[in-house]
Amino acid sequence: MSKPIRAAVVGGGISGLSAAHALARRGIDVTVYEQAPALGEVGAGVFTYPNALRPLERMGLGPAFARVGAKVGPGSEYYRMDGTLVGKVLTTDSAGWNGMYGMHRADLLNIFANVLLASAVRTGHRCVGFEQDQRAAYVKFDNGNIAEADIVIACDGIHSTLQKFVVEPSPPEYSGSRAYRGLIEAKKLPNWRKEAHQIWMGDGKHFMVFPVRRGELLNYVGFVPTSTETIESWSAIGDRDELAASFAGWDSRVVELLDKVETCFWWGLYDRRPLAKWTNGRLLLLGDAAHAMLPHLGQGANQGIEDGVALAIFLEGRSADEVSGILPQFEKFRRERTDVVQAEARRNGLRYDSRSGSLEERDKEIASSAIFRKWLYDYDVEKAATAYLSQARSAA
């Protein structure tokens, strides 16, 4: 039997660790290299949707999500800024299965970290270089170490160090919006609707709230236009008073929540237009390094998870010599979906900020957007990847 493919995953975030888990389950020899001295994720909320949770449950991770996540479902609604109901937020797939959890990022990261062998993760490794030849690929780190692998998977985010070895670097595009975010104890708002994802939409801005960590915390995000670029950082301290002032006069529920806020963070919103390519020989860009998208569909982490699940199927049972030929096929398969999701995330941000026409037109678009979300949530990445490979083999 041939030796298992050796994979070096650069980046120990959600995309990197979830990909490592999916690969390891299908017989790939995986090592994750993370630049930080320890695995960790700063505090912010993220959704897992049915399209990502479906394969994760098949991997046996469903109980872990149920333990640390906050189920999101009934009572999830869109509103105008004054609280007028616009419509329901879709939280299920077409079959009615609710695979939607509000997650603290640290909890989501820990789910994946806890199922990986400790020996599979190397912290304190900041990538500084890459080379490859016909035999293998080599990743260089600032501590002097060099990792040799059959495939290098760049999960190092929108500012990927490895991206320049695949395409000519281009700067991320600033959206013109700043996001204020934070967490507040749910017990401080005892009358808040449970299990609900609520979104208020106004002129050039919007505000959303959803539960995380078993419903013990509420994650809030306020999106506000800015005339100057804001740094992309999860940990930059925001101006609490400026946040409250940005939503003064909105629905009383928003004002009440912001009255309880003591501190918040902010980050600038950036994405990239679809890259010319994701692969170069044995090097593959994955997650935000390949298809960074705005957060207005909540799909960034979910698409990264889909990437890893699909890649594991493409590599299962293959040899090291086949890697360079497999990766372009994988890219073709995945970007048929991620290009669409990237573009729709931009459009959805315009809807939420009431920039897509009159309010009446916007409200109609919000209602019809459920059709797109069903397409998004119904997708089964394992079945799709298996069918794609079957068709490719038949055509060969």
Short description:
This protein is α+β, with helices and mostly antiparallel strands and 396 residues long. Helices cover 35% and strands 24% of the residues. The chain has a domain at 6-70 and 105-171 and 273-353 and 381-395: FAD/NAD(P)-binding domain.
Description of the structure:
This protein has about 400 residues and is an alpha+beta fold. It has a domain at about 5-70 and about 105-170 and about 275-355 and about 380-395: FAD/NAD(P)-binding domain (3-Layer(bba) Sandwich), CATH 3.50.50.60. Helices cover about 35% and strands about 25% of the residues. A hairpin with a 4-residue loop joins β15 and β16. The radius of gyration is 21 Å and the shape is globular. The two termini are about 25 Å apart. The mean pLDDT is about 95.
How would the blueprint of this fold be written?
Elements: E1 6-10, H1 14-25, E2 29-33, E3 45-48, H2 50-58, H3 62-68, E4 70-71, E5 77-80, E6 85-88, E7 101-104, H4 105-115, E8 121-122, E9 127-132, E10 137-141, E11 146-149, E12 151-154, E13 173-185, E14 198-201, E15 206-212, E16 217-225, E17 236-237, H5 240-246, H6 252-260, E18 265-271, E19 279-280, E20 283-285, H7 288-291, H8 300-315, H9 323-352, H10 359-378, H11 381-395
Parallel strand pairs: 1-2, 1-12, 2-8, 5-14, 12-20
Antiparallel strand pairs: 3-7, 4-7, 5-6, 9-10, 10-11, 13-16, 13-18, 14-15, 15-16, 17-18, 19-20
